[in-house]
Amino acid sequence: MKNIVIIGAGDFAREVAWAVERISRQSVKWNLVGFVDDGDMETSVAGYPVLGKTDWLSRYEEELYAVCAVGTGAVRKRIWERLEAYKNVHPATLIDPAAIVGKGCEIGEGSIICAGTILTVDVKIGAHCIVNLNCTLGHDCVLEPYCTVNPGTNISGKVHIGRCTDIGTGTKVVQGKTIAPDVILGAGTVVSSDIRESGTYVGVPARKVH
What we know:
mainly beta; 25 strands; six-stranded mixed beta sheet; 13% helix; globular
């Protein structure tokens, strides 16, 4: 059995704990030690203890796996860059048993693939990405590291999404489009042409607002 800690203790962290429990019943046997969070949190979440702030990990002497349940990709990036100094802490990759992962797909370390999501064939997911509930990613899609895909998003085939891009709930991306790094797509946005500049986009079709 492998010890695992969830970084972050918010609402999505409770869903990640649920995924850890589901995975443990099916395949990899995780021992969920608890949560760490740099904010002011409750003493327990979802029946597991909040162990302290992230520097708690530096004091844990045994081998430990961790997964980051923070929804913003740029924040996850900063957290993991800090954790690289902790040589006993390793990224955990979580794939819910109710996700479908097709032939030729690759999922990077530290990534979370939630229940109901479908990756068809030859999809490439970078390190420390989150693909939330009930998303679809078509053939040959590429998500660079630290992307976040929120629930109910549909991404057609051969889409390339740059690192640290956060995609809002219910977004649609048309086949073959490219999205630059550090983009935020508001909920329900439809991407029907390439997005070449970082920034915030909303609407049907997507338009830059910030």
